[in-house]
Amino acid sequence: MTTLIYTHDACFEHRPGPSHPESPERLKAVLAALRTPEFATAEWRDAPMGTREQVLMIHSESFVEEIEDASPTRGYVPLDGGDTIMSPGSLEAVMRCVGAACAGVDVVMDKEFKNVFCATRPCGHHAEPNRAMGFCIYNQAAIAAAYAYEVHKLERVAVIDFDVHHGNGTQAAFYDRPELFYASSHQSPFYPGTGAASETGTSHNIVNVPLPRGCDSAMFREQITAKMLPAIRAFNPELMIISAGFDAHHLDPLAGLNLTDEDYAWVTRELMKIADETCEGRIVSILEGGYSLEGLASSTAVHVQALMNH
Ligand SMILES: [Zn+2]
Fold first, then answer.
1. Are 208 and 224 in contact (CB under 8 A)?
2. Beta pairing partners, 185
3. What integer pLDDT is reported at residue 105 of this predicted model?
4. 297, 122, 115, 263: which is closest to 185 by C-alpha?
5. How far apart are CA 94 and CA 98, in angstroms?
6. At what angle do helices 90-109 and 140-151 cross, to 10 degrees?
7. What's the CA-to-centroid distance between 225 and ligand 1, angstroms?
8. Separation of CA 111 and ligand 1 centre (Å)
9. Is-contact 173 139, C-beta < 8 A?
10. Pairwise CA distance, residues 74 & 88, whole Å
11. Using one digit for the tens of pLDDT, what is the confidence trace for 151-169?
12. 164: helix, coil or strand?
């Protein structure tokens, strides 16, 4: 079994504006890095459209109606004070993100592929059940986890998030759902302000690993090894979903951590070891943030390379 990569041209058509860091150029950089001979054995598919039913597994009906009503035919519509913006192509882009994530769950559960990388945008982990936020409209990682629970009847699904920002949206959606586990490493204090170690969920199903500005490779690996990996192992997931943001990279212009490409390869391999022990290696990894085009491209490449080396 090999690695499947989902993407879709519609994901270029979410255009939050010329000076917005979450630009279509990000996906171009990722795809350029992955369309090289070393990835020739991965299979590529167009992301299917997600369904409204899938979105409603995490988001409320009133919020989904709000997003559908806000979707413009031209120009821009700001959703949360200007950070999160809808353009005419945004709704299809986010539905491709949702579709890729849920189809990714299907193919690993059906043993068609060992693991999946969703090269899709915009990111999703700040989107709460009732609120778009932080460049995110729908939360595809949280939706994929809920989908695995609802459709594949899994009893334990883990979302692991190494984006430099805390995934407040995923945490909010999972807080009182013991079957859904969320572990996040993130810069703290930093946007969005949540993610203290004391935020544990109602069943200790949330594990937050805040990292100080300037955190380097050694500290990152030590903190992940001590605090995150044992908690994932103890949860014993039947499926692992990765919120793969690459903005903790030392080149990233928005954040202040100092990770290298090799750290992303390392954390991917560590998560794969746990997935091999607990869930036959099933991983669906979903692109989140990463705003240095150079750092995003190189760190995504080593992440996907690690996923392929199983
Ligand atoms: Zn981020």
1. no
2. 209
3. 99
4. 263
5. 6
6. 40
7. 21
8. 31
9. yes
10. 6
11. 999 999 999 999 999 999 9
12. coil
On average, the pLDDT of the chain sits at: 98
Query: In terms of Cα–Cα distance, which of 284, 54, 249, 56 is closest to 160?
Result: 284
H/E run at residue 207: strand 206-211
**Nearest alpha carbon to residue 141 among 71, 94, 186, 107:** 94
Residue 1 has pLDDT above 90, yes or no: no
Residues near 70 by Cβ (< 8 Å), separated by ≥ 6? 77, 79, 86
**Residue that has been written with the tokens 């995110």 in this structure:** 136
CA–CA separation, 170 and 164 (whole Å): 14
- What distance in angstroms lies between residue 52's CA and the mean position of ligand 1's atoms? 25
Three-state secondary-structure class, residue 266: helix
* pLDDT above 90 (res 181): yes
Assess whether pLDDT exceeds 90 at residue 81: no
Give CA–CA dist 152/40, Å, rounded.
30
Contacts of 99 (CB under 8 A, 6+ apart): 47, 48, 49, 50, 51, 54
> How far, in Å, is the centroid of ligand 1 from the Cα of 245?
6
Name the residue type at position 200: T
Strands 85-86 and 180-187: unpaired
Catalytic residue, candidates 20, 59, 126, 166? 126
As beta bridge partners, residue 131 has 128
Q: In Å, how far from its chain's centre is CA 115? A: 14
pTM, whole model, 2 decimals?
0.98
Whole-number Å distance, alpha carbon 112 to ligand 1 midpoint, is: 30
Work out the burial of residue 124: count CB atoms within 10 Å of its CB; fewer than 13 is exposed, 13-18 middle, 19 or more buried: buried
Residue 126 is among the residues annotated as catalytic for this protein = yes
Whose tokens are 């990714």? That residue is 104
pLDDT at 98: 99
Tens of pLDDT, residues 209-268: 999 999 999 999 999 999 999 999 999 999 999 999 999 999 999 999 999 999 999 999
- For residue 36, the model assigns a pLDDT of 97
Residue 198 burial (CB count, 10 A): 6
